[in-house]
Amino acid sequence: MTASTFLFRGAAVPFRPGETIAAALTAAGLRTFGLDPAGRETRYFCGIGACQACLVRVDGVLVEACLTPARADGRVEPAEDRHDRS
Amino acid sequence: MVIVGAGIVGVSTAYFLKRAGVSVRLVEARAPAAAATGAADGAVSVASKRPGPMMATATAGIRLYRELTAEGVLDGLFFTRSTFLVAVDDAEAEVLATHAAALAASGVSVERLTNERLRALAPSLSADVRAAAEVREEGHAIGYEIVRRLIARAGLAVERGVRVDALVADPRTGRVTGLDTGAGRIEAEAVVIAAGGGSADLLGLSGVLRARRGQLLVTERAPALNAGLPGAIMSARYLLSKASAPGAAPAASARGYGLVIDPLRTGQFLVGGTRENDAARPDTDAEAVAHILRDALRLVPGLASVRLLRTFAGLRTAVVDGLPLVGAVPGRAGLHVATGFEGDGICLGPLMGRSIARLLLGEDPGVDLAPFDPARFREGRAAA
Amino acid sequence: MTDPDLLVIGGGPAGIAAAVRAADAGASVMLVEMRPALGGAFHRRPIEGVEPWPIGREGERRWARLDEGLVRTGIVPRLRTAFLGLDGAGAALLEDRVAGRVEACHPRAIILATGALESVRPRPGWHRPGVVTAGGLQVMMKETGRIPEGRILLAGSGPLLIALAGQLTARGRPPVAVVEAADPFTEMVAGLGLLAHPRHLAEAAVHLGRLALARVPWRRATVLEAITPKGDAFEVRLRDRRGRRTTLEVDHVALHDGIRPNDHGLPAANETPGAGPIVVSAGDGREVLGVVAAEIDGERAADRALALIDGRPEATRDHLRRLARERHAQAVLARVFAPARPLDPLETLPDDTVLCRCEGRTVGDLKVLFTGADTPAGREIKLTGRFAMGLCQGRFCAHWVAEASARLGPDAPAPRPRDLTGDRWPARPVPIAALAAVPDAPKR
Ligand SMILES: Cc1cc2nc3c(=O)[nH]c(=O)nc-3n(C[C@H](O)[C@H](O)[C@H](O)COP(=O)(O)OP(=O)(O)OC[C@H]3O[C@@H](n4cnc5c(N)ncnc54)[C@H](O)[C@@H]3O)c2cc1C
Ligand SMILES: Cc1cc2nc3c(=O)[nH]c(=O)nc-3n(C[C@H](O)[C@H](O)[C@H](O)COP(=O)(O)OP(=O)(O)OC[C@H]3O[C@@H](n4cnc5c(N)ncnc54)[C@H](O)[C@@H]3O)c2cc1C
Ligand code: FES
Q: CA C161 from chain center: how many Å?
């Protein structure tokens, strides 16, 4: 098993090659990936990109954690909008 | 009395008649707000109006929204905020300056903003914006919400799914006595046609009314970016697209691209749009949407990381001379019309509904309807 | 990008079978799949280093054949590419999630093979983190080989619950219980119909055998009424056939109330040449008939599309006969899994029960729309109630809102889910930066 990790809220989360962000976060014991921009708790639910409940922010953009492969050294943030425009 | 069309104009007319104690029937081919009213941005605004009757009427339209809100009728649906006219190049800056002066001259509260002031007020705006004016005391209201509220307040029961096929008139006098509909004949002492794009067929005005398509986009929520825009952002280019004469291809492009970015109260953005002549269907295409988005990104770069959620389009009903048709139809006793508000019917709808209601009640409409008198197309109508 | 003759959306058995069939007939084909791997709901591929999920020898043979077809025809699927719909000008819009760009593509025909979507009936607490769909749990297991820690409850209705329970048990992690609204054992007469479908019967027998061995209770004619958080766990309330209520404490709840075509926001079928691209749908996205049918239907759809664009002959008769057989099996299953007692109408759920998770709209919010003199139609319910207005675009609530609205406003025509969802592109939310990449048309 490789030791790739990405950062979620600043903490390293390990993942295996090909794994989605949702799979890695779930394996790390997270039920919710933070709040979404409407202030509701996100969660893994349908697994197929349909429910939009598992949103996380990667490179500033919202993506479905269940569709998006984890990337080594990537940064993943909760979907909640705390955009800084500086 | 029978009102044809449950867009914002027909519903407002019915509301004010009902409020005066008159019983009305409101017949609608599809459902309330099914056409332009349900596919509009909701600028209750004078910022983009041409000087003259439209500017004056829009000002009165905003005032009525304020009154109805104060009375509690439109409580929670109408919000006051500013519109920011912005320019990114010399040509736009010039239009902006001229227009701001015209607004000020007709008594609108408008202020040119310095760059520092603009950055402080609207941090989400790009540094590319080089000139801006704030038009104050404008507002926003969503057409379908206004319609729903007025229906509920008046206790109206809209007759949905009833398409009017033709007017019934006394062959001798020309007086309108009723309507032929898909659900049979309806007798009426007075009829108001507020059928938007359906009005042309009923009135024989096909050479006078035109459809101008508008494509609009809605994004997902982005509350922080949204909070960095204190009001609607209107590109000076929008004024160019709007001022172009209906029927003729606008100079800028056949699409009539113009840009408004509206921060919605949900934290979403509504972005528009186009002004396309003679588009048959209210649909949207990627080419236009991408063009609008590129323009929007130039003004609000932070939109790049927001997702688009929906696109939709509506057909604005425009009159060839750019002014609406409101009033009694000449030679047709018992018949009134109120349509042709093009891109301003959300702002003007309640006011025009009240005006028609007052005319029917034999009262002074309270606004000058002379420029909108349908009699100006008498010749055209006879020929049609 | 050169425009293909045929654009196939979805890399499950229906899409792959369609793509291979069309390529074998000489058409140029583009196959797009939104996920990072082909497979679809049944043939979902594991990530590197994880054993493929056991799907039986027959299933493995079918996958090998599909895979071999792709190799033979040289079709290179475009992965992580989502179809956003057809725009008003007839362009097929593809979001390439690797390049971060949307492309407008002009194929002569499109086959929609987007598979099925699970239904999850609203009940208090269904929207909480820790509650997943049975399919969602299965996706995780099939791709990563992992099963979440803790006590798992499966609830709702349908054969998938049994299949999933059997799979969990085979991995040494039997669920706490399987709660099933139907009572399949009392539907003996209907069940006899399954004798004609030994494949389904054998599959059910294997799973049920496993459950019996592991003593997993199969609580039939029982519904899961409510899910309440209790610390890190949930307390769930069950109601059995006699109306008796019991509670259970569990760590995970997987819900499933059947599947339906995943046709949301997709263009309608178009078999009229000259009126924009031909659009044919295939597999579970057209009609939920299961994995064997999906492959057959993919081939049928490819034949149909090529017949419409090139006048090629169709070999439909055999396909239709085999599809009819699968349809019969599904009809039998539907009867076997019919609810034992009528389910509580949605509008009788507590007012704060969430119907639309995205916008947080509840049963109470829906009822308010029906209090006046005037009964709103489908689109008004959407716009003024904000139902089906959120990010999932109504995929999980439109059916329920339509069902409840029909009962709340019986004097008006019943709204259709489509009245709530609308049918305009984009079929999925799309990043603005990616969409802004679509160029203006070249000047004519
Ligand atoms: C994209 C877009 C953006 C806009 N933005 C703004 C804005 O920001 N601010 C603003 O003030 N205005 C805006 N508008 C304009 C505004 O939406 C319209 O002017 C206004 O909604 C017109 O209302 P109406 O009641 O006249 O017509 P409609 O809303 O079109 O209503 C007419 C009704 O009549 C019905 N009907 C038609 N024919 C028949 C028949 N034969 N029998 C029975 N019923 C019939 C129709 O079904 C329809 O419901 C915009 C319009 C569009 C398209
Ligand atoms: C959770 C679940 C479990 C199931 N279990 C079984 C079972 O045990 N046995 C059985 O016979 N059947 C099962 N089915 C039914 C299953 O749908 C079919 O058996 C089979 O997978 C259908 O094949 P298909 O090709 O039609 O769809 P799928 O196999 O679902 O493939 C559709 C593909 O399209 C892709 N897609 C969807 N939308 C887009 C888009 N907009 N752009 C690009 N790609 C897109 C999806 O990612 C997916 O890969 C199950 C279904 C579900 C939902
Ligand atoms: S879990 Fe539903 S979209 Fe990811």
A: 15
